[in-house]
Specification:
With about 525 residues, the protein is of the alpha+beta class. The protein contains 9 helices and 19 strands.
Length: about 525
């Protein structure tokens, strides 16, 4: 409204002064703040305040429009003024009512937006809590599974310990029974001896003539208690630490103090022990201990043989020792001192035979020990025992129950000096698996299973394979390669029992080359 219009408006009537002033203010005001593109970005508080402003404006314009309508009806005012005034305020009223409707709509939208945001935040919080609960649940499940595995392992170990305890208790019971029997026999023998001593030499001679069994039992009682007897020899094998030693130095080698490189209880196919050439020594060491023949030529080595002669008859028995180089034979449990040897065949020499004789009663046990060394050049040893008629008798080993097993006799020789042996079999029969196992548990499982001849472990998942070399087709021969690290053909590591006789070893190219069936392996 111009200033002149304002003056006219003022002059119309005094009570319209307020309406005239409001009209002048509205004509000069910018109402862009009420537009949708502005209110749409307002916060709930701002849009509510804007709504209140428009409420006031709508109320003011409504009141003013009512007044101008009265002026419009009053004939006292100029004819051209009243309609314009009424039209102007009517337009203001419509404009503000439209803006108010728009702002009220924005208020509702903003309120809904706030509620949606709150709901979204609540959903996010709920989702986060659910995720946390899922993670906790997964953790608890894993802990439960681990605990169940641990419980299973403990129960298995307890079961094994109980079985071992039962075996020990059985052995103790057997030993007590044996002890009781021996004590009763000893008591009986002591009574008979007392009778002999009381009744004089004549009665003693009579008892000796009719009671040789009693005297034999006395002799056996004085030697040692009841023992297990098996054909074969306890063998200790030594590699010489120094070569080209003289005979006097080699004679003084301490076979009792020095630790052997290999030990085994070997069953002998013949009645005598004979290695008559370096090649025979090399092949025998391979078959007995799996000593690499590419690194051992049969020279610079030593043996200690231990056995027990159980006299099959009364009479004189001959011990024969033929060797290249030095050898000695000892009787009983005496120290292995060359000066006390029953047969002295020491020094550096070719094949030389020496013998000695001993008189024994039937069933009388006699322990013996043979030591031998072979220096550079050709080597050999032949040991045998002859009965009173000159016939060879079996070489036997005697020991207390439970003491026959020597160290390193269960598994075939270690090829890798304490490191893992990696194998590849041409044929094998896997009959059992143990998942997530370990070296100790897998080996123990194979030891406790009479059907198991070998165990192999996959290092990728630690799965234990229990197997044997027993095939329905008798023509199948198991051949294996072995290496000291994983190769393309040797991925699994483990051990093979010495009882698994039908296994030939690859002994070419550092035990990691072609699969070769070695002749004479079994």
């Amino acid at each position: 409204m111009t200033s002149d219009q304002y003056k006219i408006c003022v002059n119309v009537k005094t009570f319209e002064l307020e309406a005239c002033s409001l009209q002048e203010l509205l004509d000069n005001e910018d109402f862009h703040q009420f537009d949708v593109d502005v209110t749409a970005w307002m916060s709930l508080t701002d849009v509510v305040n804007t709504n209140r402003k428009l409420d006031s404006l709508v109320e003011a314009t409504t009141e003013t429009t009512t007044r101008t309508e009265k002026i419009h009806m009053n004939k006292k005012f100029p004819a051209d003024f009243a309609p314009k005034l009424f039209e102007t305020w009517s337009n203001y009223k419509k404009k503000f009512e439209g803006l108010l409707a728009s702002v009220e709509h924005e208020v509702k939208i903003t309120e809904l937006r706030g509620k949606i945001g709150t709901a979204q935040e609540q959903d996010d919080d709920a989702e986060e809590r659910i995720t946390g609960q899922k993670e906790k649940l997964a953790k608890y499940k894993k802990e439960k599974e681990d605990l169940e595995d641990d419980i299973e392992d403990v129960e298995k170990e307890v079961k094994e310990k109980k079985e071992e305890l039962e075996k020990v208790e059985d052995k103790i019971t057997d030993a007590k029974k044996c002890q009781t029997t021996q004590q009763a026999l000893l008591k009986k023998l002591n009574k008979e001896l007392a009778v002999i001593e009381q009744e004089g030499p004549a009665e003693k001679q009579k008892l000796e003539s009719v009671g040789t069994d009693v005297m034999r039992l006395i002799a056996r009682r004085e030697e040692q208690p009841k023992v297990d007897i098996v054909d074969g020899l306890n063998v200790d094998f030594f590699h010489m630490k120094k070569h080209n030693l003289d005979g006097a130095t080699l004679d003084k080698f301490n076979f009792e103090k020095e630790e052997p490189n290999h030990s085994a209880l070997l069953k002998m196919p013949k009645t005598h022990f004979a290695l008559t050439s370096n090649d025979q020594i090399k092949d025998w060491s391979w078959e007995s201990f799996q000593i690499d023949p590419t690194k051992f030529d049969g020279t610079n080595s030593m043996l200690k043989l231990r056995g027990t002669l159980i006299a099959p008859v009364d009479g004189e028995f001959t011990f024969s020792l033929n060797s290249d180089d030095g050898s000695f034979l000892y009787l009983g449990k005496r120290a292995l001192e060359t000066g006390k040897a029953f047969i002295k065949n020491g020094g550096l020499h070719g094949m030389v035979t020496k013998t000695n004789k001993v008189t024994l009663k039937k069933d009388q046990p006699l322990q013996y020990t043979v030591t031998w060394y072979g220096n550079n050049g050709p080597n050999g040893i032949i040991f045998k025992i002859l009965d009173p008629k000159g016939k060879e008798v079996p070489l036997q080993v005697m020991g207390k129950p439970g003491t026959m097993e020597l160290k390193d006799t269960v598994w075939n020789q270690d090829f890798c000096e304490g490191k893992k042996n990696f194998w590849n079999y041409s044929h094998w029969n896997v009959y059992k698996h143990l998942d997530k196992s370990n070296d100790k548990a897998c080996e123990k499982a194979c030891l406790g299973d009479k059907n198991c001849e070998t165990f192999l472990i996959n290092p990728k998942d630690m799965r234990c394979h229990l197997a044997n070399f027993k095939f329905k087709d008798s023509k199948i021969n198991a051949v294996t390669s072995v290496s000291c690290k994983p190769l393309s053909g040797t991925q699994y590591y483990g051990k093979i029992k010495t009882s698994a006789k039908k296994v030939a070893y690859d002994r070419v190219q550092g035990l990691a080359g072609k699969k070769v069936l070695m002749p004479g392996q079994w």
